[in-house]
Amino acid sequence: MSIFSTFRAIVFIIVGLFFLVSFSVYKMNVLEKAHYHALAYQAELQELGEQLAQGSDYLTDEIRRYVQFGERVHYDNFWNEVHVTRSRDKAVERLKELEVLPSELAYIEKAKGYSDHLIKTEEEAMAAVERKDFDEARRLAFGEYYGEQKNLIMGNIKKFQDTVNARAQALTEHFHDKLSFFMMLTNLLLLVSGVLVLFLVYSIGIRRLLNPLKYLTHIMQELVQGNLEIPIQVSGKRDEMAEMGRALQVFKENAIKKNIAELERHKAEMDLEKHLEDLEKLVQERTSALEKSNQNLSDFASIASHDLQEPLRKVNMFGDMLKELNQDLDEKSCDYINRMQSATFRMQSFMNDLLEFSKLTTEDSPFVKIDFNKIIEGTLSDLETRINESQGTINVDTLPGIEADPFQMHQLFQNLVSNALKYRKEDVDPVINISAQSDGNSHVIIKIEDNGIGFDEKYKDKIFHLFQRLHGKNEYGGTGMGLAICKKIVEHHNGSITVNSTPGAGITFHVSLPKKQTPLSRGGKER
User: Fold this and answer.
1) Which end of the chain is more exposed for a tag (fewer CB within 10 A), N or C?
2) Which H, E and C letters describe 97-149, residue by residue?
């Protein structure tokens, strides 16, 4: 049998074994994915059980705080959880959607039933507080019966969790057994393939190829060392070794031609290296100049803001003094003074916004892991007066954590929520919904939706430009820089902000931010 025939037969066998190995690996991957999805399913079941337990604990905490302190906020929190948030109901509904086994779902339904039944006791405790019968209220909220009912709720949730954990363990063992089988099969196939390869090396390589290869290797070494004058003896046979000899002859001829081209290439590389060094030096100089320019811009903005605001404060002060010294000014004169002071106030707001925008361009703060829920909580606390004055309602879903500048995130959401409160409809209480979802990759998309006056989408790009307003200053206050600052903050975090709106139907902002900042993407340079 010829070298080629022997080689071809063994290769066919190895290819067949390779397909078997591939199939085995494919089966292991399928099992891994199935195992992953099964564990994810079990994890969601456990999480929903925890959600039900947390919802029940939340109701207990709020009723007991209401009984102890009598603060109305705990009363409102309690009924908001029961009728609006509905975390317990949502957990049960989701479990039904997941088609949980009836035996497991029964534990959850029992726990939910006990929890609903306990609400009646909590209502009685609330009624006792309203009657000022605090002893009765404490007996109902802290008594033995309440504790027994609470234990029944948590006991059934624990049984559900234990059952889910046991099923997850059984699934893990099942998948492990199957993986072990396919892993053993893969190792066996690889072993057989290895034996065939060794046979191929010994039978064909050592016995039928070694001597010709030794000669050809010697020729190749001489050629590599630059000895292009060495003669190459090429056999007249039409076999593989003769073909290799002829190939080396062609290689020798090409090497002679290449020597000439190599000298030219080396010269070109030296020229290119010099150009690269000059370019790197130029980039460093430009970078240094840009950093200095940014610092000068920051210093100028801060100084200019302070120096310009001082005369404005004096104008306001002199206006107040004119009013005090001239109590009998006519209405027209008073109007002039008021308009003058209003203009200076707007100028001060404009300078403050300009300074903030300059800081976003020139200052660089480190990104840290933040909790968006705390950021939103702080923002709503700062805007509490405006929210109450406008009788606004803010609905906030649970938001994820990302890497960001906490101060800039606070500023971003304060501007967006303030915008929604400002551009509300007359005689309609503003409602603002804040939610988040993952884009399926590395970003989080946060949606801020309101029921305000809205705008024509042909202006959707214009509103993010500096000093751009869609309404007159007499209709709505502001400097026209709020959304420009928002866009600058989002871009500083390597994200994007878009808007959708219809006149009279409110506005929806979509803010896309990366969950984690890479070292070279943080603010455009490495920190």
Assistant:
1) N
2) HCCCCHHHHHHHHHHHHHHHHHHHHHHHHHHHHHCCCHHHHHHHHHCHHHHHH
> Do the strands 443-450 and 507-514 form a parallel or antiparallel pair, or are they unpaired?
antiparallel
Contact between 508 and 449 (Cβ < 8 Å) = yes
| pLDDT single digits (tens) 339-376 | 776 666 656 655 665 566 565 555 566 788 888 898 88
Which sign, positive or negative, has the C-alpha torsion 147, 152, 157, 161?
positive
Q: Could you tell me if residue 473 is inside a domain?
A: yes
Of 193, 224, 254, which marks where a domain is finished? 193
Let me know if residue 427 belongs to a domain: yes
Paired tokens of 270: 């030296």
Taking a C-beta distance cutoff of 8 angstroms, is the pair 169, 131 a contact?
A: no
**Is the pTM above the cut of 0.90?**
no
Rounded to the nearest 5 degrees, what angle is found at the Cα of 82, between the Cα atoms of 77 and 86?
A: 110
Contacts of 494 (CB under 8 A, 6+ apart): 513, 514, 517, 521, 522
Q: What's the rounded Cα separation, in Å, for the pair 8 and 34? A: 39
Distance CA 169, CA 161 (A): 12
Q: Which amino acid is at 204?
A: I
Contact between residue 128 and residue 137 where contact means Cβ atoms under 8 Å apart = yes
Reported as half-sphere exposure (CB side, CA atoms, 13 A), residue 278 has a value of 6
pLDDT digits 0-9 by tens, 100-155: 888 888 888 888 888 888 888 888 888 888 888 888 888 888 988 888 888 988 88
Quick one: how far is CA 397 from the chain centroid?
A: 16
